Amino acid sequence: MGRPPCCDKEGVKKGPWTPEEDILLVSYIQERGPGNWRAVPTNTGLLRCSKSCRLRWTNYLRPGIKRGNFTDHEEKMIIHLQALLGNRWAAIASYLPQRTDNDIKNYWNTHLKKKLKKLQTGSEDHPREGFSVSQPMAPRGQWERRLQTDIHMAKQALSEALCPEKPTYLPELKPSIGCSNTIPAPSTYASSTENIARLLKGWVRNSPKPSQTNSFMTQNSLNNMSGTDSVSSEGTPTPSKANDKDLIASEAFDFLFGFESFDTSHSDTSQSMSPEASLFQDESKPDSNALLPLSLLEQWLFDEGLASQGKDLLSDFALDDNANLF
DNA sequence: AAAATAAACAACCGCTCATGC
DNA sequence: AGCATGAGCGGTTGTTTATTT
Predict the structure, then answer these.
(1) Confidence class for position A179, pLDDT limits 50, 70, 90
(2) I want to staple A307 with a disulfide (CB 3.0 to 4.6 A). Which of A227, A255, A312, A313 is the partner?
(3) Which residue numbers delimit the HTH myb-type domain (predicted)?
């Protein structure tokens, strides 16, 4: 439709961000709060396009982002979710608090894909090129619909099967702050952005959107900011999407993966409710369960069960079955 | 020690979707 | 209803860093 570019090509700086630029951006956001990205370059004097500013913020500068090595659990989740969701990194990221879609995507492309391929080539004549590739893609709407239903069904059945009496899951699931994921200190500048993010401590105090950003900051102070870019990384949480039902569904799903660093505080979880999860809400009508065969779930459960028994997830991972979900 | 290569990751690009007018 | 715009997403590219020769 000939939409004009978000920013003029001329006079726009590209490439890695400098600490100065980061500070400019952070202090601006500290003052005004995230959002209205188009105005950011103008108001800050940054020679960056608005998109770049938003990306920089959401992927690196915003508080609560965990960097560094992925834990086994995270890795496991990514593999499972990728098989389930395909390359929908934002959706996957919504289940990995503190990780950005970009981060996950990179990790998948650089580590997991190879890892899986390696494992597959050992035992197969014609290795697949990653799960997503092998998945027949239906038109997006249709595919997504089915996906949501599948996931919802799995979540619900799992929560019933695994902890039928449990109103909320894993009460002791307190995030192990600073646990296994102590952030290594890469030498690149990017790592120091974390420090810049810390400059934001207290920025909410000045924020024009206290009700939204307060919880945001609370999460940060807990070192468990579970938001993702899809969830209000801009400080504008998706309004009214999170509710108790979402929470339960999310918890069930989290329980499924036994994700240990997920903050279980309700405010957090509701804040971080993924779009995916919020979509489940639509699917969460009781009779939606009857729409799909349980065999899929059973298979999935089986796989997870094996994995949880300490077996090598990758070798046991039922690629075909997961791929055939759709 | 230097060059070549591979790996990792940050950032960009283009498309799509959501929203407001 | 149609258009303009902001924002989100996923794929891809470019740059930096690590490893090998």
Answers:
(1) very low
(2) A313
(3) 9-65, 66-116
